[in-house]
Amino acid sequence: MDRLLPVDRPEDVPEAWRGTPIERLLAYHNLGAPLEEHDSAEILIGMCMDNRKVLRIPDRFAFVIRAGGANLQPAEFKVSYAVAVGGVRALALVGHTHCGMVGLHDRRTPFVDGLVDVGWEREAAESHFDTFAPQFEIGDEVDFARSEAERLRDRYPRLLVAPLIYRVEDGRLWLIREGGSGAAGRPEGR
After folding, report:
1. CA geometry: angle 4, 137, 133, nearest 5 deg
2. Pairwise CA distance, residues 94 & 71, whole Å
3. Considering only CA atoms, which of 190, 189, 143, 184 is closest in space to residue 20?
4. pLDDT at 58
5. Nearest Cα residue to 94 out of 11, 18, 29
6. DSSP symbol at 106
7. What gap in Å lies between CA 108 and CA 111, rounded to an integer?
8. Could you tell me the CA-to-CA distances from 182 to 146, 151, 187 in Å, in that order?
9. Contacts (Cβ under 8 Å, ≥6 apart) of 184
């Protein structure tokens, strides 16, 4: 928990994110701010495909990409589209606790068995897992969200990128403590 920071009141939002769609996301979801009308998306939210996460946001506020582990590398063209054509200038990268992409190698047997149950040949299912699991294993949720945010900041230098964690335990978005570089989108550690 020392790597995560709560957002329980407006003052908890880092200064670098105030007045941005990141602040509005946190206000909508965590603080119960009234859901305003939006004509177009202000933010791209990249989050895991896990069905335990539901964000409280208004219609047309955000583009949302759901990908296992909130790993946007395989969806980078979609990120580029939301930025270049959709005009968003902020991205919330939302990992979550108890993610199935953590320790993925430990799920090889149920993965293979599940594919066999729907008609795959066992050897093909094993090969499928062995080929793709290394690409989708994220390690630790917090560390991955932090490193993926850094990768996206490097790739899109003028895009405000906020790494967050959705705690399944309480249904709230938490800030990930980052080092104090002071650069845009990188809140100072508190």
Report:
1. 165
2. 10
3. 184
4. 97
5. 29
6. G
7. 5
8. 15, 17, 6
9. 16, 160
On whether the CB atoms of residues 176 and 4 are closer than 8 A, the answer is: yes
- The two tokens of residue 98 are 């108890």
Query: Which residues are CB-neighbours of 119 under 8 A, at least 6 positions away?
Result: none
Q: Which residue has the tokens 């990930």?
A: 176
- C-alpha span between 153 and 90 (Å, rounded): 11
Give Cα 43 to chain centroid, integer Å.
12
Burial 9-25 (b: 16+ CB within 10 A, else e): eeeebbebbeebbbbbb
Per-residue pLDDT reduced to its tens digit, 117-174 = 999 999 999 999 999 999 999 999 999 999 999 999 999 999 999 999 999 999 999 9
Q: What is the pLDDT of residue 2?
A: 84
The structure tokens listed for 3 are 């790597």
Q: Give me 74's structure tokens.
A: 């395989």
Looking up tokens 């949720």 gives 141
pLDDT tens per residue, range 20-55: 999 999 999 999 999 999 999 999 999 999 998 899
Residue 17 identity: W
Reference 136, options 7, 52, 48, 39; nearest CA is 48
Give the list of residues 6+ apart from residue 79 with CB closer than 8 angstroms, or none: 44, 46, 65, 72, 91, 152, 156
